[in-house]
Design a protein that fits this description.
This protein folds into two domains: about 190 residues, FAD/NAD(P)-binding domain; about 150 residues, D-Amino Acid Oxidase, subunit A, domain 2 (D-Amino Acid Oxidase, Chain A, domain 2), CATH 3.30.9. It contains nine helices and 17 strands. Helix 1 crosses helix 9, helix 3 crosses helix 6 and helix 3 crosses helix 9. The chain is globular and about 65 Å long. The two termini are about 25 Å apart. Bound molecules: flavin-adenine dinucleotide.
């Protein structure tokens, strides 16, 4: 840390930027968040908000420990952020069902269960079709069964991001709604961040710009391979049905949410920085929804959202000191898992910036150096 006006400027007011700022401020650092639009106005505000810790890029090897640690950390972190901010992020532990509709899916899931069942937190187990429907009456009764897990976390992602932002502000963090245009540099040191008409001085800078972080490669000359992966979600209303657990099938999902609506998704679209909703996505999501929960065929569409996941070149988060820079750091690239992994990414990042030993497992696999 230096004696500059601010110890750290965090670029990006998504979940990664806001949590990093909160954790740094909690350790006594003076921090400014620089956000081009508004807090949680992109993926962090429009994600599904579920925490599937036992699957995804890098799982089980090398990220299982990191993923489970991140999940456990949300239990205490969500309560802490709620207490400090007064914003309830609706953190909840509930059931998660991964449906199998084809014999090869059932075989694949059972194979993964051989190691998943050992992660005590989730009590993952195979259930046949009757038990699946008993556990979740909306699940497709024609399924071949599925993996049922308990204690899977979920949040309302916008409120969680807002809770982190407001908790950070309570600890003195400044929120500046301006776009970062580049870095102020002196050799391998960052002196601050350029904005239109001026600059913000800082002892260290964090790049937490979600899918836009790749653009900062030009600012710092280091490879930060992150691209946008668009995803859409439908929010639906049904007069009599709710989906108490989260049901998953082939990368899509459905669950009832704290706003009283049923949320269903999703898509994976490589279309650049386009955040518009589309009719094709709506039809695809409805098709997937009916495969998971056919009784919801007459649900009424209330809202459709689209946002951009920050996807790294290998699908795993990028967390650490930017190669070649003394005081420039990055936290991004978590793709479909950025809400779940936010706690591990941001605690790891805060520890690295503060020079503290980190208890977050697996951070070595996330270092940006791997893309050099
Ligand atoms: C449809 C969908 C569903 C999802 N569901 C889940 C889920 O169920 N579980 C899960 O774990 N994850 C989920 N995700 C992924 C998760 O939402 C993201 O990985 C996570 O929100 C990324 O957070 P972030 O802070 O890195 O980026 P963002 O939320 O994109 O925030 C980055 C911020 O940086 C700002 N910014 C960019 N450039 C600049 C600049 N030059 N100056 C200032 N500010 C700048 C942007 O305005 C933005 O606010 C989902 C994503 C999508 C799209």
């Amino acid at each position: 840390m230096t004696n500059a006006a601010r110890d750290v400027v965090v670029i990006g007011g998504g979940i990664v930027g806001c949590m990093t700022a909160y954790l740094l401020a909690k350790s006594g650092a003076t921090v400014t968040i620089l956000e081009a639009d508004s807090v949680g106005s992109h993926a962090s505000g429009f994600a599904f908000g579920e925490m599937g810790s036992l699957e995804g890029a890098g799982i089980p090897d090398p990220l299982l420990g990191f993923s489970v640690w991140s999940h456990q950390r949300h239990v205490s972190l969500s309560a802490e952020l709620q207490e400090v901010s007064g914003v309830d992020p609706f953190f909840h532990l509930g059931a998660r069902i991964k449906l199998a509709l084809q014999p090869e899916e059932a075989a694949d899931f059972k194979k993964n269960l051989e190691w998943q069942k050992d992660i005590a937190d989730f009590k993952a187990r195979w259930l046949g079709p009757e038990d699946i429907v008993k556990a979740e009456p909306q699940a497709n009764p024609d399924c071949l069964g599925g993996v049922y897990s308990e204690n899977a976390g979920s949040v309302e992602p916008y409120r969680y991001t807002l809770a982190a932002a407001q908790a950070a502000e309570k600890l003195g963090v400044d929120m500046v709604l301006r776009r970062a245009r580049g870095l102020v540099k002196d050799g391998d040191r960052c002196l601050g961040v350029r904005i239109d008409g001026g600059q913000i001085d800082a002892g260290a800078v964090v790049l937490a710009m979600g899918p836009w972080t790749g653009q900062a490669s030009e600012w710092c000359g280091a490879p930060l391979p992150v691209t946008p992966l668009k995803g859409q979600i439908l929010r639906l209303q049904h007069a009599s049905h709710e989906v108490k657990s989260s049901i998953y099938y082939k990368g899509s999902y459905v669950s009832s949410k704290p706003d009283g609506l049923i949320w269903a998704g999703t898509t994976e679209e490589e279309v650049g920085f386009d955040e518009e909703t589309t009719g094709e996505a709506r039809d695809k999501i409805m098709h997937d929804l009916l495969a998971m929960a056919p009784a919801l065929a007459d649900a009424e569409l209330v809202q459709q959202t689209a946002c951009l996941r920050p996807l790294s070149a290998d699908g795993m988060p990028i967390v650490g000191q930017v190669p070649g820079w003394e005081n420039l750091y990055v936290g991004t690239g978590a793709g479909r898992k950025g809400i779940l992994w936010s706690s591990g990414m941001t605690q790891g990042l805060a520890d690295i910036i503060l020079g503290a030993e980190s208890e977050v497992p697996g951070l070595g696999a996330l270092h940006p150096q791997r893309f050099q």
